[in-house]
Amino acid sequence: MPHVESALRSASEEAAAHEKGRSAHLLIHDGPLRQTIIALQAGHVLAEHNSPPAASMYLLRGRVRVTGQDDSEVTQGQIVALTHVRHGVEALEDSVFLLTTVTSQSGESHGDSPESGHQH
């Protein structure tokens, strides 16, 4: 079972040491669901990219600006749904967030198996 605080510390340390000022730790990959801890050092940017079918960002530490169609500042403790348009993320302070995404990829979930006849 992943420990969020440990992943947060590891990602922060790795981001501080990385030339691009970022690090990511995949905590959960369950069928189309992914939850990833992402650390981004102040002044660094995740370039604009397409959004998956559904996504949210929960800011655990710091302050970021989500750029795209509408720029918005996100502060520690806030959670935002990411729109279905291209967007980027700029760290205004050293920041760590939990990114939750649902992709269009199908797959087994929570021990479901083809033998069980349980499909999504």
From TrEMBL:
InterPro entries noted in UniProt: RmlC-like_jellyroll (IPR014710), RmlC_Cupin_sf (IPR011051)
Region (Disordered): 1-23
Positions with biased composition (Basic and acidic residues): 11-23
Taxonomic superkingdom: Bacteria
Ranges annotated as biased composition (Low complexity): 1-10
SUPFAM superfamilies in alphabetical order: RmlC-like cupins
PANTHER family, alphabetized: SLR8022 PROTEIN
Protein name: Quercetin dioxygenase-like cupin family protein
